[in-house]
Amino acid sequence: MDTIARSPVKLRPLEQELQHETLLQRTFRRFRAHRMAVVGVVLLVLITTYVVGGSFFISERYANDTDFRNKWAPPSTQHPMGTDAVGRDVLARTIYGGQMTLIISALAMFVTALLGTVLGLISGYYGGWVDNIIMRVSEALLCIPLMFLLLVLTKFVGAQMSDVRMLGREFSGSVIVVIFVLGFTGWMGLTRIVRAQVLSLRTQEFVVAARALGARNHEIIFRHILPNTLAPVIVYTTLGISNVILLEAYIGFLGTGVQPPTASWGNMIQRATEKIDTAWWMWFFPGAFILLTVISINFIGDGLRDALDPRSQK
Q1: Higher pLDDT residue, 25 or 296?
Q2: Is residue 16 assigned to a domain?
Q3: Total of domains in the chain
């Protein structure tokens, strides 16, 4: 029987291009295909431009200046977002309050990501008594109500902190307390995620080969295992920023977060409770910024989750 010669399958130009794209290119392509993630990026860039660029035109001193003769003034040409209970310009305070809220959320999640990743790597790789100690501590901390812990620590520790001057600005000491409390109370979930990833990776062929070639434990952890756990860490950290923004707003609304004269979107809403029915501009504008920022970050987190999913065929 004569054999039929089969011609090689010809790939279309798009398929050939997809075969040769790098991991970063594939991730970026998937992220761009997620329309809501792109919308989230645009929103976040606009908000960041507002709170950062606005400081070049409006000084923090003006944002903290009081004018009791012009308090509770509604939006006007002179004050586009009105004034608060002591006559401070709401627009100026949303700029510097937004800076403080974004700084707190970014630094708090940095602490969380650092602690959670390192402890998860150590727990999953070494196992044994090290794993038992880290897991039991994380389980004990998970049993403590986070909001109660935040309220107690920020109320009693933050009140004793003196003002600090940093980057040419003066912050109330409560800012440092809020950053570290939010950072040190959020690492447990990420630790468990990273630990689960490491448990499945430490028996893989590339880890066994690295160990057979004489690689030290810290080299295996940080050069071989860590890069393969970054995807869930990035997604968790991104989505966690929106949670920190909401937590800061909660404790700020209850009056135990960032203390005046330092502004944040949370404590701006707290001042609106005095005339919440008539001075609507006091809670509407900072609340709108919180809402838009959280929505944009959640959109970006969803897009990153889809883009970094190795099972996705898009």
Answers
A1: 296
A2: no
A3: 1
